[in-house]
Amino acid sequence: MARSDSYTSEQRDAADLARREVLEQMHADLASKLATFDDRDAWQRWLKFAAGFHQYSFANTCLIYMAKPEATLVAGYRTWLAKGHQVRRGEKSIPILAPVTRLVPLEDAKGNPALDPAGRPIAHRQMVGVRVAHVFDASQVDPPPQTERPQPTLLVGQAPPGLWDSLAQLVADEGFTITRGDCGGANGYTDFAAKQVRVRADVDDAQSVRTLCHEAAHIFTMDAADIATYADRHCRGTLEVIAESTAYLVTQAHGLDAGQYTFNYVAGWAVEAAGRSGDLHRIDEVVRSTGERVITAAHRILSHTQPSSEAIVELPGVQAVTPPIRPTPRLWETVTAAGRPRAQAMATRTRARGRNAPSVPR
To answer: Which listed residue, 75, 91, 316, 345, has the most CB atoms within 10 A of its CB?
Structure first.
């Protein structure tokens, strides 16, 4: 086989572009499959159930936890009744704080009442105080609701040969160490402050390599602002969709089918990104909207783990890349909002990871 450095820059650029086209099609395929995957009915049932519940403030979340640490989903008596569930006799309610509001007329800059186009006064609802309200957990009602959303099933079996070592080297090149062991209920996490990636030790090779790829995607896609806002579930939802979608593209390119795991995992975090009341169409849109970051990260990882471009999985309508070449290691393409590729020197990218940067569990 000819050496990759014997090819011209035009040939290398052509192969990089072909790789990106394959990844773009694979990412579009992920979004379309998410709209039709096997657990869609289960997700629709869960979303329908969860849509009518309030998102509680931090203070009320603390009150709920102190009153009933095992609580999963809470609502008022009438809300449960409207959903077809009866609070059991004798159950103790959970006290929370509910806002007291009133309508207040809006005024213009001169202090006069603001009017709508029809000449009617405009008013807005303003919080003037709080009152104690009472809610009940899902465990306190009959019949018991199906509160658990569909979960991904861990992968089993062997990993593609050499993929773990290649990913580990890529992570090490970024200054991170890799350890195996307990992850506190997650399959893995990235600690940006300690520059450490941890992966569960009690899973099959297929799952461990998919998790490592997911964590590598976090390293390549999260900047200081992402790390700072990761605790917010809306922001975290988007970041998890990006990381898992990247892992899906990379593992698919290496012949590891992680579809079932990916679809349920991505759907779950896309719900957080879109809001609990979001429907499956909005979930699909979350996946599509993250395409640029996903494709860029997958392109970089595959440039290291699979330098021969012809090894990328072939998809219908995508021509195989020949001859096999090795892309320039510190340069790759991104896609602008208009969809036009441009080169970006990632060697200059800086990532502020302060001492108080949070861990990113997976």
So the answer is: 75
- Please tell me whether residues 18 and 100 are part of one structural domain: no
CA dihedral 280, 360, 293, 159 (to 10 degrees): -90
347 DSSP assignment = G
Non-local (6+) Cβ contacts of 257 within 8 A are 251
Nearest to 301 by CA among 324, 332, 266, 325: 332
Q: State whether 132 and 218 are in the same domain.
A: no
For the entire predicted model, the pTM comes to 0.60
Q: How many domains is the chain partitioned into structurally?
A: 2
The secondary structure of 84-106 as a DSSP string is T-EEPTTPPPEEEEEEEEEEEE-
Q: How far apart are CA 167 and CA 212, in angstroms?
A: 7
CB contact burial 254-266 (16+ within 10 A = b; e otherwise): bebebbebbbbbb
Tens of pLDDT, residue by residue over 151-167, are: 788 889 999 999 999 99
Cβ proximity of 265 and 214 under 8 Å: no
Torsion angle of the four alpha carbons 14, 22, 290, 170, in this order, in degrees rounded to the nearest 10? -70
Banded pLDDT at 174 (limits 50, 70, 90): very high
Last residue of a domain, one of 142, 168, 200: 142
Contacts of 125 (CB under 8 A, 6+ apart): 101, 102, 103, 104
Which residue matches tokens 């001859």? Answer: 323
Domain edge (last residue) among 142, 171, 190: 142
Q: Which has the closest alpha carbon to 300: 348, 333, 251, 253? A: 333
For 59-74, the pLDDT digits (tens) are: 887 888 889 888 888 8
Q: Which two tokens stand for residue 41?
A: 């009915």
